[in-house]
Amino acid sequence: MTKMNELADESEELPVANGIWESGQPLPPLDIRVLTGIEAAPREIIQRAADKASEKLAVSDIDANNLAEAGWGIIFAANADPAVRAGLEPLIEHRSHQVRSNRLLQVFDGSKAYQSGDTARSWLAKNGVGFSVVDPNLGVPFYLTIVGSPALIPFEFQYQLDTYWGVGRLDFVHPDDYRTYAQKLIAYEQALGVRQRREFAIFAPKKPGDRATGLLHDLVAEPLVNGNAYVKPLGVRQQFGARALLGNDATKSKLSSLLYGEDGPPALLFTGSHGLAIPCDAPGQMERQGAIICQDWTSGPVTSEMTFSAADVNENLALDGLIHFFFACYSGGCPVLDDYGRDPLGRPVKLASAPFTARLPQQFLLSGALAVLAHIDRAWSYSFRSGRSVPLVQEMRDVMVRILKGERLGLATDQFNMRWSVLSGELADMMRARDLDARQVSDGILANRWVARNDARNYILFGDPAVRLRIEDMAVPRS
Asked: pTM value?
């Protein structure tokens, strides 16, 4: 197939975002003026896909799913609060007993810490390694936990470091929260047994006339639950059962019953919905940004009765061992500037006074969830479709299958990093073709490829990336 024919298969329509303002208005469409400012990804990102040897994350004699071989490290900012470090000492001690040598357990503080202005490349160089297939014995272990807010250690640092390493982030409001998370994680990993059965849950509203939720429901959620002529339902091969809250069943009350119910939470929860968008510096922005908009909302202002937010998480919620895959605009957090919008003067729109982590993932972690995989900035339908609404959900499904197989999260989520690398290379080719002849690449084609690349990049793992489901200790669900 020629390049022109390949491009003809791309969607000419501008991307559809999965977010709603609290006023009830949809987030604005992508402003095509942003296309003039697209920047190529760093060469390390493109190289990951171009170099066939890079398909393997760790050197061949390392089992990246074996913590004793892959190692574990924790990255503090140079000006980190000592109380935060003290709160994480139990986790550091716990991980030190699981790796096989002192060199494979690294605490990056002091001269080895993240310094303001560090890039992933400069930080790695400071610690004696570069962007390449990971050899944890060189001093930077495979699993790395970043500690602190994106104002201290930027999201961009995490994106780039995650290209080869398995990276997660811990960011809480209070220093004591870090100890709470550490204690719950340790309790889960050291318990004689686990409460959960082999069950996952899919939550996906579908609103009449709403293309964003319709696409997500029809192309992602429903096939995951029911399969199709070519693919079995998710979890069948791993002996996992499904709990489905789709369409009219995707209400706030039913999501609350799923999480607070007597049967306990599922091992894996996928929620795909609109995320609540709060204007810059509006009251409660940090508390409500990215909350799950449930089927209860139909039109008009979005009220608290229509969303599941951090305020709906109380001391009675025990999510011990849950992993949450959270697809929605701002579900993981918010940058300062909108990548996708411009004001009347052509300047980027300000989203927040400072970058921040969404509160709902924080509260889930404090209630016992092992990890939350969520999205920074807006999330778009092109994450899971190609061309003219052709479903393209292999990466999302692959991540979930790997989680259900018991892989550690930093390894299981690598499909998104590879997709980011592949799309970055293809986007660079498109931009060169457009420079030579603008007729080769329309605004719609370029916009879809660009937001697809950004969507793959903008998945962030919150929690320790070395966690995994204890599937070997889970009972098969009741029929």
From this structure: 0.92
